[in-house]
């Protein structure tokens, strides 16, 4: 990677692998581009290689080796391009053995230095042209970005071009690419997000061919903070590597290294640490997290004795809401959470904080151990610690992948959340001990791999090195929190806008001509819900998955399966998840789909379990490539939100540009609990959310299914008689859910197809006989499938009456969904056509004149595809109406420049060849210009009206 400084006008050019990216200040503001006048704005564009050969225009910085673009930062009104100027290769989590040589599959680099080049002036250029200690000191002390340079060069920042450092290994795709990383990386661990956001947005707007060249150039760099290192244990066939990756979170922004949490549930001192062990045959991973005690507290100076004293700012009750948010976020990301809080013995302040922590955890329904520690527990009494955590270690599991067979045979379903009041060392000591125990347990099941004394030594040394760097980072921040708070404010609050005149111009046309490269198609969806009563059954379920009256002529494009009570709802299972059950049902359904559908093969694209609820999504391999932005969320509602015996699991995804949301839920039971079921519904709607603030209602299509537990308000005898007579409509009139929906209470705006099957609850298991127990439950349609969104059309609704191992019957529904698909090839062809015509029009003009024309005028509008643009008003109006029907926000208000009802970006201003001195508007015409009036002319002579 090379860096050039341009003159007249001043610019910075980054060059890599044949692609040259120019940045310069944007000064020309037009009425059309007013949004760029309110912030620091930089023009970004690609330039040809020939331009850089002009030494009178561009000067290359040759005193350093550059390794990546960290982004753009605004400091004191000036804008700087941040470039990585020094790295060290420190890791390769995955590798292959070829001819007895270890070949890394990826590389992780530690950042050693970063340069900041001004887009605005040359004041500091001379310091980069000659590298010496004196100039380096001046860059730290005098340069506006000196504090950021010192920060990024402190040895705690890392990046990789072929490995997503922000995500644990189990969340990585099978192959790495920049597109996947951008869509799926965990931004809470990326420290230069504010510096790269605009570059990513610009990248997404440029044509695909150019985007590929940009990606191959390796410009974008995503930096995490913490520690990363790989050590290799060479031992022939038993060769292995150990990698530790510690990620410091930015979720609490400027207060990342302070104490406690905030009202949004963001906690300070949050570190996610993952150990990755790679062998010739396997990849093994285990994750733990440590963070500040998630309560509102602070340190105060002790006036009598040396040291600091803990002070609670809010009581446990006052902290509960923020506490719950914090753990809801953790559960959504990691699964089951088990807390280990380390407490100093004989410390009253720590004891009181620990009791408050325990109170909040018990109220939330999260398992917690408050462990009083001393130095001996980490050296002489490790077995006591392992004894306390043994159950959690077994239940949470670990990630394991068989390289040779290409299968996942182990999955971590939760994490330990460790905290100590004022120590980095103690949580890391616990993590090291747990890491060794987990490895020893796991390797007992890994054939052909055993832990040697050398391996153990390397493991322990790596953990100590991890402690050294994290402690060093935290110590610097804790000694001068106000200083670093200001630095983080500069880093996280930096905002720079990018403007590419040509690509911006093309993107505006493409938005207006969207209908030319998008099309609608129908896909089919199978949705099934089943309360399995905590049983693992080997019975055939084909009748449910492939019903004869499904209305589908071939297998569905997408299968969505929701299960309730996948574990017995006993106290021992309310707060934890049995991973075996999830794996069993995933394998059972996937095997059925792939052995019954001929050539079409399916993959389990997403699944998640919360207690007794399990939601799985299977897609045909041909459709899977169109799915993006898959994201899940969960919400407990059992026992006031503490337990996972009731609640919901949700998934959001995009099929091309159509947004889907699928939910499975288990609501409160009992004939008289209608109000509680309504409250469960409201709680789920309020709390389920996805990235960028997306809520359930914001999707184009919603399918909500599960055991809703609504009953029929009739006597047992009457219900059973009507079932025998198959007069289901009479039963439906008394169905609680039907009455709630009619009243506009629960599930407003949702639809349910007419029910033409008998109630699915409650049966004597193994029979077709409704409940004969002492309770004699009234039969009811507890198992339901609802939908919302105009893109969905339901085809069938039924139940599988012959699957009898549970006291419920499985229910299914099939849909067609009219999805909007983006045709990338058509879009690129249209973009190319627009580009060619624009360049023809601008041929021979200087760069400044080109920018001026592109920003001030729309001279080419009528010259581009007149047949396409002729659709005008009707297409724009139809788009607006369809968006309005879907519940989208209204279009921007009309202005003098643009009105929403004028299509394809046509200007509002119309030139009329009428002399206002002699002509006037006909007052006899209807004032509505869209009403045809052949009898009265639009303009008449002024003298014709007395």
TrEMBL record:
<dbReference type="InterPro" id="IPR036691">
    <property type="entry name" value="Endo/exonu/phosph_ase_sf"/>
</dbReference>
<dbReference type="GO" id="GO:0005737">
    <property type="term" value="C:cytoplasm"/>
</dbReference>
<protein>
    <recommendedName>
        <fullName>phosphoinositide 5-phosphatase</fullName>
        <ecNumber>3.1.3.36</ecNumber>
    </recommendedName>
</protein>
<feature type="domain" description="SAC">
    <location>
        <begin position="148"/>
        <end position="476"/>
    </location>
</feature>
<comment type="similarity">
    <text>Belongs to the synaptojanin family.</text>
</comment>
<keyword id="KW-0963">Cytoplasm</keyword>
<keyword id="KW-0378">Hydrolase</keyword>
<dbReference type="GO" id="GO:0004439">
    <property type="term" value="F:phosphatidylinositol-4,5-bisphosphate 5-phosphatase activity"/>
</dbReference>
<dbReference type="Pfam" id="PF02383">
    <property type="entry name" value="Syja_N"/>
</dbReference>
<dbReference type="GO" id="GO:0016020">
    <property type="term" value="C:membrane"/>
</dbReference>
<dbReference type="GO" id="GO:0006897">
    <property type="term" value="P:endocytosis"/>
</dbReference>
<dbReference type="Pfam" id="PF22669">
    <property type="entry name" value="Exo_endo_phos2"/>
</dbReference>
<dbReference type="GO" id="GO:0043813">
    <property type="term" value="F:phosphatidylinositol-3,5-bisphosphate 5-phosphatase activity"/>
</dbReference>
<keyword id="KW-0472">Membrane</keyword>
<keyword id="KW-0254">Endocytosis</keyword>
<feature type="transmembrane region" description="Helical">
    <location>
        <begin position="65"/>
        <end position="87"/>
    </location>
</feature>
<keyword id="KW-1133">Transmembrane helix</keyword>
<dbReference type="GO" id="GO:0015031">
    <property type="term" value="P:protein transport"/>
</dbReference>
<dbReference type="InterPro" id="IPR002013">
    <property type="entry name" value="SAC_dom"/>
</dbReference>
<dbReference type="InterPro" id="IPR046985">
    <property type="entry name" value="IP5"/>
</dbReference>
<keyword id="KW-0653">Protein transport</keyword>
<keyword id="KW-0812">Transmembrane</keyword>
<dbReference type="GO" id="GO:0046856">
    <property type="term" value="P:phosphatidylinositol dephosphorylation"/>
</dbReference>
<dbReference type="InterPro" id="IPR000300">
    <property type="entry name" value="IPPc"/>
</dbReference>
<keyword id="KW-0813">Transport</keyword>
<comment type="similarity">
    <text>In the central section; belongs to the inositol 1,4,5-trisphosphate 5-phosphatase family.</text>
</comment>
